[in-house]
## 1
Amino acid sequence: MYTPLMGFRADPEIRAAIVRWAEQQPDDLTLSESVRRLVELGLTVRTKPKQAPATRADRAKELASKAIDKVTAGAPEDDVKANRKRRLIKGPEEFREDRVDLPKAKGK
């Protein structure tokens, strides 16, 4: 079976770290075998998926909403409070078209 050769450049610190790792292994590994095993190990590690931008935006809105609720406790009527909260979360009208986190209005 033919296994293609792969190469990469590593700065001295990375190379030294690979050599140190290889020295701690029970068998006597070559540098190439050490790199191959480390790559295999790295490919088995499961990482936490990052939040999608929409999820982060929703979470930010939720946190902003809670913060506004704390600040506006005892505010006038509920509909006035809700209107103020909505304006704060959406941002000033004159800046909305410049925000990158909001979808663009149709026809603009």
## 2
Amino acid sequence: MSATTAVGAGGIRGPRVRPEPLQLRLLEVAFSFTVLAGLLWQDIAHWNKFQTSLGRLLPWIVVVIIADLLPVPIWGSVELMMSFPVLLASALVFPPYIAGSISFLGTLDLREFRREISPLRDFYNRSNVAVSVFVASWIFHRFGVDVLVWPEVLVFTFLALIADMIVNFSLVILGTHLLTGLSARRLWTNVYGGSRPDVFLGGYACFGLLAVLMATVYSAAGNAGLIAFAIPLLISRQMFIHWKRLGEANRAIAHKERALTAVVSRIADERRDERLALAAGIHDEVLPPLYKVHLMGQVVKHDMASGRLLDLEVDVPDLIRAVETADSSLREMIRDLRNSKIGPTGLAETLGLLVNELEATTDARVETHVHPVGGSPMIHLLAYQLAREALSNAARHANATSIVLVLDEDQDSIRLRVTDDGQGFDMLGVDSSSHFGLQLMRERAELAGGLLLVDSHPGEGTTVLARLPIAAEKRPGP
């Protein structure tokens, strides 16, 4: 029964329909037409009973369509369809061929109307629903129990529910595996409950067992009882929405904890780099004039001790010039430190040094188009950090051989773009438990009022685009 259906995967940039792999299309065609042919064969074989039941089927189809107008997204390409208990209830009330027909005709996926999935994918989803319901109904009716026989009906409904879940989950995972290339184990973890699959499966089973109550109400009240289906469906939908939001909140907290740990480590590295840069600046720019001050002071002292006062006319001006040079060097260094958080050379030259280091330590070659940009020192530091992370990912993780770095600005923002020809990756396949660089980059950009977009697909390289505000955001005061 379709609790879940697959759709095209989306990346950070938002939904984008990906061309389906050939294996997935073959599965969709073969499975869908097999299921449709089987349903038609069953309906024709029982045509007299099917024809007399048409008046009872239409209200069920309408209820299924209405329930499917309110799906709950679970993960990436999978949604929970709220018609699940309704369809399972039809499996308890009607024979398999009628329940399967209701499922095939009534299942509705709004994403097809929004052109987010192909008609063939919708056909596969409908077939998944139909065969799941058909199997559940066949198992339930094989024991010959009536929905009004309590509590025995609960046992056989649970068996039908298990069969439905096995068929549906298997088809969903198979289709999503062919679409994304992710392993079945990884898909099971992401789709069905994450770190707490017991919570999801328990709630899902209780959701399915609502079918017993729905079937009982329908047996007692007929089509008028279908109206009462709305109450448990709405309550269950809110439960799954809150469950999803709680899971997202837990994942966000885990991301932030790992990001904070990484930030602490990187701050230590950046402070070490700053100390080294400061030490080099003092050694190269400040110590030479100070040493000259020391030497000229010794010369003046020697002149006064030896009574060579006439030599002071030459040596004292040299001492004064040495002091002025040292003073000027110190002031210039202090001014550079105040004006740039990434060193006295500024953003453009610091990016150049970063590129030179990357080319010296990896096989990648970087084409740079770096222009002077405005913005505060903190924004410059953020742009440097984002560029460093993107370049490092491209050269060391994506095995890119050609990288393009672009830095420019428009009227109100700095634009940073890093494009590589590396191996790329599937956004849904990123293991956030160990690779959270993208999450960290995005949070850094958003905290500064900017935006980070990532576009990548396996074998197609990666593009990282960041927009950062030139002017600091004005926050409302008290």
